Amino acid sequence: MLRSILVGFIGGLGFLLFSYFFNVFNFLEISPKSYLVKIWTSTSWTNSWLGVMVTISLGIILSIIAALVYFVLFKKIMSVWMGVFYGIILWLMTGYLFSLIFAHIPVLHTLSSNTVVSSLCLFILYGTFVGYSISFDYYQTIYYSSES
């Protein structure tokens, strides 16, 4: 379980760094701040370094939660495809569920094709990393504990 938290931390940090990179180079129309910080407040600090740090912190916490959900539900399925499927599920939840809850976040089908494809690829990469890392660790733990 502790390794799943570590996987969630590393996955969330990587996901957010790639998201900011994609946003800077206009692959994504929406910044990660729009999903994590600007849904609660629209003050000027959200555009400063403090907004970036709060976004990264919240994103890592959400990533740890997502990794723990994967650990509880799918840890026994050691397949790359389960991770891909998990990433697509997270992408759909983020793209459609968040847009229903928070009015300023646009629905996926209203965004540009660059944003849709780039965000889908990011989520698939994230889901694959989290899913395969957790499943691999689970099976390694079982294998080495049965040898002793």
Describe this structure in words.
By secondary structure, this protein is mainly α. The chain has 5 helices and no strands. The chain has helices at residues 2-24, 32-36, 49-74, 80-101, 113-147. The longest helix has 35 residues, at 113-147.
How is the topology of this model organized?
Blueprint: H1 2-24, H2 32-36, H3 49-74, H4 80-101, H5 113-147
Helix pairs in contact: 1-3, 1-5, 3-5, 4-5
- Record field, number of beta strands: 0
**Poorly predicted spans:** none
- Number of domains in the coordinates? 1
Structural class, by secondary structure, is mainly alpha
Question: What Rg do the Cα atoms give?
Answer: 16 Å
Distance linking N and C termini: 20 Å
Number of contiguous helices: 5
Mean pLDDT across residues:
88
| Element-level helix/strand string | HHHHH
User: What is the makeup of the main sheet?
Assistant: none
What is the beta-strand fraction? under 5%
* Fraction of helical residues: over 70%
Characterize the overall form. Answer: globular
